[in-house]
Amino acid sequence: MAQEHSADPAAGATPGDAPDTADPSAPPAPARGPRPGWAPFLRVGTRVVVRYAIDRSASPHGEGMTDALGVIEDADEDTLTIATKRGSDRVVRGLVTAARPVPDPPRRRGGAAR
Q: In 67-87, which positions are buried (b, 16+ CB within 10 angstroms) versus exposed (e)?
């Protein structure tokens, strides 16, 4: 089950731009285009955590941002598809506000439970 997150682009707006009188139920600020050369590690097979803007009215608690932690399954100029524990998230690159590669999760140790 893939979730898709997108926004309508508008000139000069970036994720996080919001006037002081912003309606909390309004959708996130429109996305800007991909930034060439930014986050070159966002390639297929890389484990990453990505923070991106979401529609506040569609989130259960009115959040404006969310994170995706997982392995990049597909990447092109405009979107990333990240395989998370809950399924695949398709994220518009213009909505990404922060990203970083992360190491593999620690392996569980075998042995008797205490």
A: ebebebeebeeebbbbbeeee
- Give the separation between CA 47 and CA 69, rounded to whole angstroms: 7
What DSSP assignment string belongs to the chain?
A: --EEE-----TT--TT---TT--TTSPPPPPPPP-TTS-TT--TT-EEEEEEE--GGGSTT--SEEEEEEEEEEE-SSEEEEEETTEEEEEEGGGEEEEEE-PPPPPPPPS---
Model pLDDT for residues 61-94, shown as the tens digit of each residue: 889 999 999 999 999 989 999 999 999 999 999 9
Quickly state the pLDDT bin for 38 (edges 50, 70, 90). confident
